[in-house]
Amino acid sequence: MSNKTAIRQISESLAAFRYKFLRCRFLVNLIEASLLTIGFKGTTALLEFLNSFSKKHTYLHAGDDGDMVIIDRYYNIFYLISLGGRFKGRCLSRSLAMQYALKCYGLRTDLRIGVDIHNGNFFAHAWLERNGIILNDHPINIENYFVLPLDKLNSKMQFV
What we know:
Elements: H1 3-53, H2 63-82, H3 91-103, E1 110-118, E2 121-130, E3 133-134, H4 139-142, E4 146-148
Antiparallel strand pairs: 1-2, 1-4, 2-3
Helix pairs in contact: 1-2, 1-3, 2-3
Domain Microcin J25-processing protein McjB C-terminal: 86-146
Organism: Mucilaginibacter straminoryzae
Protein name: Lasso peptide biosynthesis B2 protein
């Protein structure tokens, strides 16, 4: 492989990453606005409806290793979004956006929402799991949270 070919492939890969990053960042902010206007149940119903129309991505499915490549790619994108300052969205909007993006590849994940009371203050946090493995957070960050059953949520909550 020539140097020009290698540079072109790297450039194309970076352009594809930038495109996915911008799409995901836009999706996070749309979900954030949706959560504020129509709430959690309405937003999840809207995402399910949109997913039925979205183009399903195909990739060479290599079992768990292939799945982990896709998950790792989106973990990196959403990690960069979480560092993004003013328009990074909350943990719930980032988790819902990542779940939607992974669902486009046929990868199912479980949304977890946990609550904690510390020094009289109420905290809530959201993250994704797949087969019991935390995808977009670190176990230390969620170890004190009590996981809520999603089917019981029906009101607006303040997420950190």
